[in-house]
Amino acid sequence: MSAVPAVVLVGPMGVGKSTVGQLLAERLGVGYRDTDDDIVAAEGRTIAEIFVDEGEPVFRAIEKRAVRTALTEHDGILALGGGSILDPETRALLAGHRVVYLSMDVEEAVKRTGLNAARPLLAINPRKQWRELMEARRSLYAEVAAAVVATDGRTPEEVTQAVLDALELKEA
Question: Which of 1, 32, 90, 115 is the most buried (most CB within 10 A)?
């Protein structure tokens, strides 16, 4: 029998999936897992290096496998990479899971990441590229989500509580 994650977090880069995921795991008394961390550990290099060395299609194939594996192995809080929902098979795998889309607007993204971090898809004109990425992805995040939680102007603790409330989950 395979495991089923308690909550799956999706959303754009820099939205706080890792921070909120770890807080949720603590509050629910379960483990935390991030598919980006899984990829880095398995590949022995950063995601940016994979993009540069192999290209986005190779990275997306690696990411798809990592998500599929994590969805069947992990029963705690699972955070997915920002672009994982681009794959139709991955979106289909998320059906029936408690998926929460953590959202933020571009101004919040600028405040949090400065849009100058080591983000391979934001290398040139990061603000414009972030907007374009979100235009392409927003409906896909919403499609897989059981709940949407806005993170703008909220602390990680406030977002964590909003996720618990949205899913009507009780703390451990």
Answer: 90
> What's the whole-model pTM score?
0.87
Residue 34: beta bridge partners?
Answer: 79
How many angstroms separate the CA atoms of 163 and 172, rounded? Answer: 15
Contacts of 44 (CB under 8 A, 6+ apart): none
The alpha carbon torsion through 139, 145, 147, 150 (nearest 10 deg) reads: -50
pLDDT in tens, 113-128: 554 555 555 555 666 7
Record the tokens describing residue 57, joined without a space: 């299609």
Strand 77-79 relative to strand 32-34: parallel, antiparallel, unpaired? parallel
Supply φ then ψ for residue 10, to 5 degrees. Answer: -130, 160
DSSP letter (8 states) at residue 13: T
User: Is the Cβ–Cβ distance between 82 and 103 less than 8 Å?
Assistant: no
Taking the C-alpha atoms of residue 11 and residue 83, their distance in angstroms, rounded to an integer, is 8
> Can you say whether residue 98 is alpha, beta or left, with left for phi > 0 and alpha for psi between -120 and 50 degrees?
beta
Contacts for 53-58 with beta carbons within 8 Å, 24 or more apart?
A: 56/120, 56/121
**How far apart (Å, rounded) are the C-alpha atoms in residues 103 and 37?**
21
